Automatic annotation (TrEMBL), chain A:
The chain crosses the membrane at residues 12-32, 38-57, 69-89, 109-133. It comes from the Bacteria. NCBIfam families: PRK12573.1. It holds the Pfam family MnhB. This is Na(+)/H(+) antiporter subunit B. GO terms for cellular component: plasma membrane. InterPro entries: CPA3_antiporter_subunitB, MnhB. Belongs to the CPA3 antiporters (TC 2.A.63) subunit B family. It is a multi-pass membrane protein. It comes from Robertmurraya siralis. It is found in: Cell membrane. Its main location: membrane. Keywords: Cell membrane, Membrane, Transmembrane, Transmembrane helix. Residues 7-131 form the Na+/H+ antiporter MnhB subunit-related protein domain. The lineage of its organism: Bacteria, Bacillati, Bacillota, Bacilli, Bacillales.
Length: 140, 802
């Protein structure tokens, strides 16, 4: 039987969101400041691992019913999709495009197809780390 | 593709159809479908006689690989035609014979005729190709199909042994011949034989001449079963008798003879060729006839007899090549030797073919080939006896059979060696006629054994498996035809052979002796008058009869030879030793221990890099470009060194894992120090994850084998690891000191914002400038995770099954 880990569980409920937020921040800031898809993905995975430590695998998969292997596949699709999309505009594979757009509330913002590529990296990293940890964790 | 090409490959094409005939018409013997083909081909090639008689050469080219100068050039000249007629003629007779020899119900006839046709086509290709590479391809196909035919009864262990032996020896020769062909190409720039012959004077001065000569002769000697490569032929007698008659007496074993004859104009300029061909031939002649006498199996006798007769032809070709050292035909002493070679080649094909068929009949009708069990068959098989007598007496060189004529000419050729005054032949020349005469005596003896031990003497019915009776007519037709040829050739050698076949063949072997209009005037006499040759023959008969009658008394001579010094023992030993030796050699370094493999890999790594550094004189230390060393770097370096070294001396695994983690975290501190925030972040997280995974592994180690010991100290390990460390350090220092170009990073610095709209250069390089790498790195991650998932889940599934 599990012991009563009330402090840990409560603490993680609070910390989890901070970590996820931080990882999302790092992911988006990647093009201008240290960070990016890889480290962002690892941190999200770290947050999920904390959940796993506080609760158990069954509970976590009930809260977050993701199939991480499919997530890996989707991530790869994103990365290849952005790369291959360039071909339709008659430019070489993996040519990124960017532009600056004025949005009503946020003001001027730069949009970049590299972000979608990075999103692919992010999803793959989360998928891969969670697949590995879950598989090993479930192993008897 | 001309009709000539079609004729050459016709047997190969027809071979495809044979299985259909076999499956669809089970009631008719498949041989009947095959039989028309060699007859048609024989008639077709027969029509070329008038062409070659007038010294014309038919050349037809079919492009195969023109860019490499390899084209299927079919060339019909005197020599090629002679062989083509032998192949198709005897081929037809052998097919006819095999129809009665092989039973329709019991044998896998489709295999037999497919192999036989493959062989026939390959052999035609060998003798009618002008291009050496094409000839080589057909040459290997003859080895290959002969391998299949020898192993036809593959359920017998001896058949498989014989097939393997012949394959190893002939393919060894074939490959060295390929080497010779390539050397010839290097010297002349052409694969065409006719082209090469015109450049013979260039070749003889080349440094590659001797290697090419030896390589080509190796091919010819192995194929034609010359000493010491003759050992495969007696073991090839495990093949069905039609095969022995066809391949191992009349055609394939003469491929080497053909090669020597064909390339005589190229190589005979040099004395080495004469010496090698003549002396190997004469010794093979002697050794073959000497060994034949001690055999007790009829087919072994014939096998050694074939070896010796091939040696005879080979020695004649060697001596005949001396004629090229004279100019013109007048007074040319040695042409007679080449004439004798060609003549004996034809004669041998006739009498040896019929003898094999006779032995096949005896085997077929009595169930044994052992002469100790046979005897007194004369009354049961009168026709077979007559045929055997004709063949054997011709082989022994008695009149009135064709063997007499060629043996007389053989003696003439050997006696003329005595008059040879070049290439230091004068000192050893006397050996040639002596060996020839002694060998002829032995030939006489085994020919008599063959006839009289089988057909006369005491009839021993209790030792025979079947009750002997005369063979069916169909089986007798082929040997009767061949035996009649033996007699007809004796009486009409000139009208039949000299102008039609021998003279054109001579002009292909010795082309330089003729002017355009001239032709060889071959005339064969039955009666020479009282000359040394005749007395030699009389001597052979007298001594031969004497020795045959006293055979039981001197037979023990053969026991004098030590059992374990025979060539077969040597061959078996070599094959065995090659197997056990390579096994031991492989076993000595492939010992299955990963530690040893790592030792090899790292030793190789150290040696190759150290040599490269040393030879290229690349080691250099240049301090001009170094940054100054700060106190933090020194501290961190000390920290990481302490961590790394203490891993080696840690007592428990747990402390090793934690020390490794400390090293990893120090590395991330280094990244911080050297201003690489992305790397530092990633390194921190990855290090945590991998330490966690190590702990998982540690936790799962089986209890029984968990040893809490230190790493054991091994000197080799220490030396190699210190060596690797040293060499990598040296290379790093030299690489740093030998910078020849400035870095390309300036481009990224300038363009990261301009072209890629980012300020984090590392990330922009990862996803934009060099995103291709990242794409595949995440693929690697995906594969790794799926691999882990697969390994664990699959194992679980299997455990549940148990």
């Amino acid at each position: 039987m599990r012991s009563n880990n009330i402090i840990l569980e409560t603490a993680i409920k609070v910390i989890l969101f901070i970590i996820v937020l931080f990882s999302v921040y790092i992911f988006f800031a990647g093009h201008y400041y240290p960070g990016g898809g890889f480290i962002g993905g690892l941190m999200t995975a770290g947050a999920l691992v904390l959940l796993l430590i506080a609760y158990d695998i069954k509970t976590v998969s009930m809260i977050l019913p993701f199939n991480y292997r499919i997530m890996t596949g989707i991530g790869l699709l994103f990365a290849i999709g952005t790369s291959a999309g360039a071909i339709f505009f008659n430019v070489p594979f993996l040519t990124h495009a960017f532009g600056h757009i004025d949005l009503p509330i946020l003001g001027e913002i730069s949009l970049h197809t590299a972000t979608i590529f990075d999103l692919g990296v992010y999803l793959v990293v989360v998928g891969v780390s969670m697949t590995i940890i879950q598989t090993i964790g479930e192993d008897e | 593709m001309s009709l000539l090409h079609l004729a050459i490959v016709a047997p190969l094409i027809f071979a495809i159809l044979v299985p259909f005939f076999y499956k669809s018409f089970r009631r008719i013997h498949t041989g009947w479908f095959v039989l028309p083909l060699p007859i048609l081909l024989f008639i077709y090639f027969f029509s070329f006689i008038s062409t070659t008689k007038s010294k014309e050469v038919v050349m037809k080219t079919l492009d195969w690989i023109p860019t490499l100068g390899i084209n299927f050039t079919a060339k019909v000249d005197g020599l090629g035609l002679l062989f083509a007629l032998l192949i198709t003629g005897i081929g037809a007779l052998v097919v006819l014979y095999s129809i009665y020899y092989l039973s329709k119900g019991k044998e896998k006839l489709h295999n037999f005729y497919v192999y036989l046709l493959l062989f026939m086509g390959a052999m035609l290709g060998v003798v009618l190709s002008d291009n050496l590479i094409v000839m080589y391809a057909f040459w290997e196909l003859t080895s290959f199909s002969s391998f299949l035919l020898i192993g036809y009864w593959y359920h017998r262990e001896k058949s498989r042994y014989g097939a393997q032996k012949s394959m190893l020896i002939t393919v060894f020769g074939g490959l060295s011949m390929l080497g010779g062909i390539i050397l010839l190409y290097l010297m002349t720039g052409s694969f065409s034989i006719s082209e090469i012959i015109t450049q013979a004077d260039v070749i003889v001065t080349s440094p590659l001449f001797i290697p090419a000569l030896i390589c080509i002769l190796l091919g010819a000697f192995t194929k034609s079963a010359q000493f010491p490569f003759h050992i495969w032929l007696p073991d090839a007698m495990e093949a069905p008798t039609p095969v022995s008659a066809y391949l191992h007496s009349a055609t394939m074993v003469k491929a080497g003879i053909y090669l020597v004859a064909r390339l005589t104009p190229v190589f005979a300029v040099d004395g080495l060729w004469l010496w090698l061909v003549a002396s190997f031939g004469i010794f093979t002649l002697f050794w073959g006839s000497f060994s034949a006498v001690k055999q007790t199996d009829l087919k072994s006798i014939l096998a050694f007899s074939t070896v010796s007769q091939l040696g005879l032809i080979m020695s004649l070709l060697g001596v005949g090549a001396a004629s090229l050292h004279y100019v013109g035909l007048d007074d040319n002493l040695y042409v007679v030797a080449t004439t004798a070679a060609i003549f004996h080649l034809i004669n041998h094909a006739t009498f040896k073919g019929s003898l094999f068929m006779v032995v096949g009949i005896v085997d077929h009708e009595t169930g044994t080939r052992d002469i100790r069990k046979l005897g007194g068959l004369l009354h049961f098989m009168p026709i077979t006896f007559t045929l055997a007598m004709i063949g054997a007496f011709s082989m022994a060189g008695l009149p009135p059979f064709n063997g007499f004529l060629s043996k007389e000419m053989f003696f003439t050729g050997m006696l003329r060696v005595l008059e040879m005054d070049f290439f230091s032949f004068d000192s050893f020349a006397i050996l040639f006629p002596i060996l020839a005469w002694v060998a002829s005596v032995f030939t006489f003896i085994y020919s008599m054994i063959l006839v009289f031990k089988t057909f006369t003497g005491k009839y021993q019915p209790e030792k025979l498996e079947k009750k002997p009776h005369e063979a069916p007519l169909g089986m007798l037709i082929s040997p009767i035809i061949l035996a009649s040829l033996v007699i007809i050739i004796f009486f009409f050698p000139n009208s039949l052979l000299s102008d039609n076949l021998i003279s054109p063949a001579l002009s292909s072997i010795l082309p330089s002796l003729l002017t355009d209009e001239e032709g060889f005037m071959v005339h064969i006499y039955q009666w020479h008058g009282f000359n040394p040759e005749l007395f030699m023959t009389l001597g052979v008969i007298a001594v031969g009869v004497l020795l045959y009658l006293t055979l039981p008394k001197w037979r023990r001579v053969y026991d004098l030879f030590p059992e374990n010094l025979t060539l077969n023992r040597f061959y078996d030993g070599a094959v065995n030793r090659a197997q056990t030796g390579s096994f031991k050699f492989t076993k000595s370094f492939m010992n299955g221990s990963i530690r040893s493999y790592l030792v090899y890999i790292f030793t190789f790594f150290i040696v190759i890099l150290a040599t490269a550094l040393f030879y290229k004189n690349a080691f250099k230390v240049d301090t001009t470009n170094l940054a100054s060393i700060g106190v933090y770097e020194v501290l961190l370096a000390l920290l990481i060194m302490i961590g790394a070294v203490s891993i080696l001396f840690a007592k428990t695994r747990l402390s090793q894992i934690i020390l490794l983690g400390s090293v990893g975290y120090t590395v991330s501190l280094f990244y911080v120090l050297f201003r690489a925030p992305d790397l530092a972040l990633t390194q921190l997280v990855i290090e945590s994850v991998s330490v966690a995974l190590f702990l998982v592994c540690f936790y799962h180690l089986p209890k029984l084998r968990r040893e809490e010991t230190r790493i054991r100290f091994k000197l080799t390990n220490a030396i190699i690891s210190v060596g690797v460390g040293a060499i990598v350090t040296l290379i790093a220092l030299s690489a740093h000191s030998n910078k020849f170009f400035s870095s390309i990073s300036q481009y990224y610095i300038e363009n990261t914002y301009e072209k890629a709209a980012g300020k984090n250069m590392v990330n922009v390089i990862l996803v934009d400038f060099r995103g291709f790498d990242t794409l595949f790195e995440i693929t690697v991650l995906a594969i790794a995770s799926l691999g882990i998932y697969g390994m664990i889940k699959l194992r679980l599934a299997r455990r549940e099954e148990d």
